[in-house]
Request: fold
Amino acid sequence: MFEQAWQVGTFAKIPVKIHWTFILILVYVASNAFSQGAGYEAIFIEICFVLAMFFCVVLHEFGHALTAQRYGIRTEDIILLPIGGVARLRNMPEKPIQELIIAVMGPMVNIIIAIVVFISLLSLYGTPFFSMENFQNLDFSNWRGFLPLLMISNIMLVVFNMIPAFPMDGGRVLRALLAMGFGRLKATRIASIVGQIICVILIIVGLYYEAYTLAIIGVFIFLNATQEYKSVALDSVLKNKTIQDCYRKDFHSFTDYTTVKDAYDFIMHQTNRHFMVINLYGQYCGTVSAKAIKETYKLNPETRISEIYQPKILSLNSSTSIAHALYALRGQTNLILVTEADSVVGVLDQESIQQLIDMEN
Ligand SMILES: [Zn+2]
Reply:
């Protein structure tokens, strides 16, 4: 999603990028205005308005990024998507108060913009300008509507961003406040649940009033709320944990001359998905997956394990960190041989780590 973005500039060493789909918004706005019979000037004003709003979104993201920078957290880049902006921070602060301030400083920028516009309008036109009927008739047919609508949109941006659900800023504020009392993991869990309830309300209200954008936003936030919790849960569980905490002591190894049929009969009663393979000399020589056994069984049950196994062994000491083991399990092998003082004590796969995560939660 973030790959096809054009870099438009760099400020405070942070690259600002625009995703190509952003163009679609401008095309949509223009064609929509045109089909409603708007003149060229009105279309031009509306396009300028969209660009001005996205500039406000960029400033909002810089509110987050520059605050994060003060806490020594670098920002990879700021990307403009049709749904809004994203400041991709390298990492999140551990201290709740820092997360709170970083989250608040985005919407704060929009509040400041709204106040500045309000003061300018007040000094330009005086108090009578801020009447209800004047505001109800604002549109893009002339420049007079531009600034008041910019002010209103910035206020709406603040309200929208403060919805207390991930990945909205309000979700982070809520999590940070909860983290001061419950710790980060539990705070994230509560914040996720609150976020999901709000999403369900948004979806129901959106469908009921046929405001489908609202419903889609609800679905989008819902999926993200769950994702955020998973990643925080993973971090906090894996921190300070070693292979010692979750490896499997009892595990089965197939000899490499076992037939796939025999292996298949065995794994039917097993929940494990990866097995060690030993050669004629009783040495560990590789791993085989239940998936490979099942697939080969359908083709030729007489095949030997020696023809289908992965001839690679990765052994790690039980004192190795889970984070390191997980890295190896994602790229190098499906099953790690666990050793202690040069003798094999068990195995480790992604499921073992998953069990640890489930247990801790
Ligand atoms: Zn924000």
